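About this split. The held-out portion is used to measure sequence recovery: a designer receives only the structure tokens and must propose an amino acid at every position. Recovery is the fraction of positions where the proposal matches the reference. Here is one held-out target exactly as it appears in the evaluation file.
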């Protein structure tokens, strides 16, 4: 049994940027998954067929920004102590998904200023100095008695400031309002990215805990197998066991040694996944300091959780602002048929040179009335209608998806809690069975086949218990994410603080 690491299927809520991110799924044999792998594919980009068949898409996973981080700090030769709170705090600062989400907000702010610029005054200056020569006869057909037809060369200087201001342009007004809704949407998306980062970091931290428990369990099983091998050897020396019993015990010991090697390797690789996601310096070693034993979670009622999620989920608020922006774009498209009023003026100095110039001024109020624009406005309206319909449909789909995610989380929470109880009991029974089998073998009542089988049963039960505890804790943080409180209440949900 082995949990999935960074290059295996990663759990994320399907909400980042239309979808972010990476939770390593711990999936032992006969252990129900605490989430829907098809929803996972929407975020990681893993093809549905690959998810359903258990295949891995390494390229899509490596491109997921929530698997990466921007390294910060200096490499220390001493392993650092890393608590769950520390890991989440680092991830919120250094995870690549969060960094990119912040850049998206900056981009939306730039678009906001671009839209506002259509409503704000524009002031520019223009200064020029030139030399002119004119043939008035050739250019204008003029003949001046007593004067040559060529005038010049003579200098010409002009310096002025131009001022333009839109007094009324309903299209620009609506576009500016739409850009404000887009900025709010980007801000909510950035907040949602932080929720996803917490989901990624907590899940990967839990994965490290599970892998560490695997190492401890494998070590214990190896030590037990070593003791049983020594016992079988002593029994053979005493004439109470056969050579095949010793051989069987040695094979079992080698099997447990192999499992321990795999468990240690998996733990080391999972630590690399977590270190990268939180932005630790490359090569930095660490030791986790937070342990998460079984802690029952008392959740609110299902209906209360669903209603609170619509208010707390940042992705839902982001999509609502997308709908609002699309509505305003539709109004802006219709307003292209409306007249607009503007003011234009300029003031400057003109003359043959800067020292010999005089002031000039022009001022005008302009009224622009669209008469016929070749169907462009109609085309803009059609596109705006399509965009608005699309955003409204996405909002309704997200509403239904949130409802489903919360219901799934509640089902997973209940199922995995029961599973932890069953698997804990199974470990106790398997332990007792192994002890009794060893006593029977020592007494010569049976050979060590029964002992080997009892060892295997205990190993399977231990693995299943570790997996069930991981699944239960993932179900808790998934519920926090589904209700939109992962960042603010992850410690309460996972550790019971």
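Reference sequence for scoring:
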């Amino acid at each position: 049994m082995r949990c999935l690491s960074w290059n295996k299927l990663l759990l994320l809520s399907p909400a980042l940027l239309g979808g972010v991110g990476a939770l390593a799924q711990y999936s032992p044999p006969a252990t129900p998954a605490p989430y829907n792998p098809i929803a996972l594919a929407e975020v990681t980009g893993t093809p549905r067929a690959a998810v359903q068949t258990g295949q891995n898409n390494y390229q899509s996973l490596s491109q997921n920004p929530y698997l990466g981080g921007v390294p910060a700090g200096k490499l220390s030769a001493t392993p650092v102590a890393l608590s769950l709170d520390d890991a989440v705090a680092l991830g919120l600062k250094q995870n690549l998904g969060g960094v990119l989400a912040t850049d998206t907000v900056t981009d939306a702010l730039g678009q906001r200023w671009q839209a506002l610029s259509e409503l704000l005054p524009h002031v520019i200056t223009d200064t020029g100095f030139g030399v002119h020569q004119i043939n008035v006869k050739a250019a204008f057909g003029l003949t001046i008695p007593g004067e040559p037809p060529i005038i010049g060369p003579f200098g010409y200087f002009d310096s002025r400031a131009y001022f333009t201001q839109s007094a009324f342009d309903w299209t620009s007004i609506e576009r500016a309002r739409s850009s404000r809704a887009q900025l709010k949407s980007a801000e909510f998306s950035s907040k949602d990215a932080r929720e996803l980062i917490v989901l990624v970091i907590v899940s990967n931290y839990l994965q490290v805990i599970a892998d560490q428990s695997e190492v401890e369990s494998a070590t214990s099983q190896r030590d037990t197998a070593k003791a049983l091998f020594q016992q079988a050897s002593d029994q053979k020396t005493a004439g109470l066991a056969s050579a095949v019993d010793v051989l069987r015990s040695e094979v079992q010991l080698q099997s447990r040694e192999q499992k321990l090697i795999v468990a240690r390797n998996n733990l080391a690789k999972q630590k690399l996944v977590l270190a990268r996601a939180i932005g630790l310096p490359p090569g930095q070693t660490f030791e986790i300091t937070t342990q998460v034993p079984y802690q029952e979670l008392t959740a609110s009622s299902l209906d209360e959780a669903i209603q609170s999620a619509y208010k707390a989920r940042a992705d839902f608020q982001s999509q609502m602002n997308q709908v609002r922006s699309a509505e305003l774009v539709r109004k802006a498209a219709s307003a292209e048929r409306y007249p607009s009023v503007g003011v234009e003026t300029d003031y400057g100095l003109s003359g043959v040179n800067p020292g010999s110039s005089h002031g000039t001024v022009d001022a005008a109020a302009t009224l622009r009335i669209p008469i016929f624009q070749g169907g462009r406005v109609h085309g803009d309206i059609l596109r705006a209608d399509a965009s608005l319909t699309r955003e409204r449909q996405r909002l309704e789909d997200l509403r239904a998806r949130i409802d489903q995610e919360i219901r799934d989380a509640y089902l997973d929470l209940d199922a995995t809690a029961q599973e932890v109880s069953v698997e804990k009991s199974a470990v106790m029974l398997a332990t007792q069975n192994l002890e009794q089998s060893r006593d029977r073998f020592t007494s010569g009542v049976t050979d060590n086949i029964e002992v080997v089988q009892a060892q295997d049963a205990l190993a399977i039960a231990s693995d299943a218990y570790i997996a069930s505890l991981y699944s239960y804790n993932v179900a808790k943080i998934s519920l926090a994410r589904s209700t939109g409180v992962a960042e603010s209440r992850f410690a309460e949900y996972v550790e019971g603080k």
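Annotator remark: Strands lie at 80-82, 122-135, 150-168, 286-288, 340-353, 356-368.
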